[in-house]
Amino acid sequence: IFPPNSGNKEITWMMLEAGAETDVVNSVGRTAAQMAAFVGQHDCVTVINNFFPRERLDYYTKPQGLDKEPKLPVKLAGPLHKIITTTNMHPVKIVLLVKENPLLAEVEALQKCYRVLDLICEKCMKQKDMNEVLAMKMHYISCIFQKCITFLKEREDKLDGFIKSLLKGREKDGFPVYQEKLIRESIRKFPYCEATLLQQLVRSIAPVEI
């Protein structure tokens, strides 16, 4: 059954939270996301591609192996999950989500969060059913968190300064150069060079001058 074909984002999200598998294929070999895209339900495709079960994040809130402490404090799991599952990937939106939560907007908290994101990214690339889209998203958010840390440490205006830098346009045409450079830098730093998605992004961006 492929409810995304109906275009109902809420039902799609509810089914995902109830444990619906995103990689199961129908009789013609298509997943729910592929079927939704085929019939033009792009909002549902976005919901499916951005879904990340809370349980997968909660795994890092418990000590694993020889660890005495969990990699992610329980209090950070909710705020981080909210950012992970957002469908608006504009860097300013992500920084605003960090800024609005006092638990998250601290250097130590962001350091723990970005390290967990890097672990999830690695898992997405090394699992049997590789998920390049989710891996790239985790890496991208991790890069923004690391830049947040830099501004929190080095700037008096802290995250407000980061937001201003992202929004500031160059004089001749208002183009946000800093924002463009940040996004390109995050793509360049993606550690899995063999990823098809990375190669597609590089091919499309490399010839375009800022």
Automatic annotation (TrEMBL):
InterPro entries: Ankyrin-MYND_dom_contain_2, Ankyrin_rpt-contain_sf. The lineage of its organism: Eukaryota, Metazoa, Chordata, Craniata, Vertebrata. This is ANKY2 protein. SUPFAM superfamilies: Ankyrin repeat. Gene3D superfamilies: Ankyrin repeat-containing domain. It comes from Hemiprocne comata.
